[in-house]
Design goal:
Tetracycline Repressor, domain 2; 10 helices; 75% helix
């Protein structure tokens, strides 16, 4: 990885950590530069404005999720509903790791609600991919809605599900009705 790319990634990761630690509304360029170990000028070289940093943070979350999803799908190639199974694996692995919600995304949305558009666009593409690769499009839609609902509850601090309830969802989605296996 080039030094320029490495600095950019360090800045993005620092911004995400700070948004989590301090709350999305308290993200400042000075604090991000300090956390990333770069000068403010170095930060501004990569992200000339706070708005551009927040846009990049949203893009980074989408790219990371999609890249991981694609890798998981490839490991399941040959399965009837590889993409749907990979999506379920990825979302549930995030819950199992007790990942903190992507506070950087919340920071971006708090600063500029327009930044939700790339997330909405990605989710539409993801849903279309899931439906196109599913044995049953309605099943793909139900899985998508349930998992995205659980993720949204976590992001907004509204998660009321117990571990047992979350596992019940996964078990139901692994049943023949959802997997297409007989």
């Amino acid at each position: 990885m080039s030094s320029k790319k490495s600095s950019r990634l360090k800045i993005l990761l620092a911004a995400d950590e700070l948004a989590h630690d301090l709350g999305p509304g308290n993200l400042s360029l000075d604090a991000v530069a300090h956390r990333a170990g770069v000068s403010k000028g170095g930060l501004l070289y990569h992200f000339p404005t706070k708005a551009r940093l927040l846009e990049a943070l949203v893009e980074h979350h989408i790219e990371t999720f999609d890249s991981t999803l694609t890798k998981k799908e490839k490991t399941r190639s040959g399965e009837r509903q590889a993409l749907l199974a990979a999506y379920l694996d990825l979302v549930m692995a995030d819950f199992d790791r007790k990942q903190p919600p992507p506070s950087g995304v919340l920071a971006a949305l708090a600063e500029n609600p327009e930044l939700i558009a790339p997330i909405r666009d990605y989710n539409r593409l993801l849903l279309d991919r899931l439906k196109a690769n599913a044995a049953n499009q309605t099943t793909a839609l139900i899985v998508f809605l349930a998992l995205e609902g659980m993720r949204a509850m976590q992001v907004f601090g509204l998660d009321v599900l117990t571990l047992e309830e979350r596992e019940a969802v996964v078990t139901a989605f692994q049943s023949p009705l959802y997997t297409g296996k007989s």
